[in-house]
Amino acid sequence: MLKPNELLQRSVDLACANVAEGGGPFGAVIADGEGRIVAEGRNGVTRCNDPTAHAEITAIRAACQTRGDFRLHGLLLYSSCEPCPMCMAAAWWSRLDGVIFASTRQQAAAGGFDDDRLWRAFETGATSREIPIRHVNLPTAGAEFEHWLATADRQSY
Amino acid sequence: MLKPNELLQRSVDLACANVAEGGGPFGAVIADGEGRIVAEGRNGVTRCNDPTAHAEITAIRAACQTRGDFRLHGLLLYSSCEPCPMCMAAAWWSRLDGVIFASTRQQAAAGGFDDDRLWRAFETGATSREIPIRHVNLPTAGAEFEHWLATADRQSY
After folding, report:
1. What is the arrangement of strands in the sheet containing A27-32, beginning at the earlier edge strand?
2. Could you read off the pLDDT of A86-129 as tens digits, one per residue?
3. Are the C-beta atoms of residues B97 and B75 closer than 8 Å to each other?
4. ipTM (interface predicted TM)
5. Residues in a beta bridge with B42
6. Which candidate, A105, A111, A69, places its Cα nearest to that of A88?
7. Mutant choice from B52, B76, B104 vs A, greatest count of A C-beta within 10 A
8. Alpha carbon distance A120, B130 (integer Å)
9. 77-136 in B: which are within 8 Å (CB) of A?
């Protein structure tokens, strides 16, 4: 059982180890309130050809497999770096109790990563300037939600 | 080779099929500029115990595996529903050319999904109200970026 700062240090150690092995400089740990590690993650974007394989996403997916649940109530995410909007939203969808991070989005920017720019786009409602998005009013749109709401045994989340 | 509206209809069809098979009401298609489908995705959150397995993320990961690349330049994402912040950021990290969607975040909310609430948290800079986040100034933080910048053959992204 590790203390909070030891868990956070572990995430930084994972980030450093990942760089040594050719990966990106990000690591993450998911632990329960008593400091027991449930899962760990390293950035695997280039190694796995997966732009979503940030350390936090990788740790969340691993923790869910370990738990056999798509919800992580009662667990905390320790990340070597402030999560990007993708990872912050993933932490939210996974119902984690909270996030603790060491390096900041500004430090990530100095390392050549775009997190700070992406955060600013979200915080100013300007994501469509970064990636063009278009709504097409398809006549059949919404049928999927009608099917969903008509399904008595649907598993909500 | 399908026209844009046919690709979008395909994403709605995938969403409906997913509901019929017990999954969430979301589907996505990734195609090139000529309308050739590169990958498809369905929401697998409950089926796969993976809170990150939104249809868009699943399609992005599949397209990257097909391409053998973590970048999807030249491709478009067609989604049955307006992407949540996680998926929008994933679209950005994957360097897709753009996103086209059918149902809106408000329609998703009527279906019982939290996308609209999550978007508002991001757009008002209030994500920390949704999930507690804390910065701890670890003395060793930043070492991972120093290692990274000192690695001559690092693969940036």
Report:
1. A37-42, A27-32, A75-81, A98-103, B133-135
2. 999 999 999 999 999 999 999 999 999 988 999 999 999 999 98
3. yes
4. 0.97
5. B27
6. A105
7. B52
8. 18
9. 80-86, 88-104, 107-108, 110-112, 118, 121-123, 125, 127, 130-136
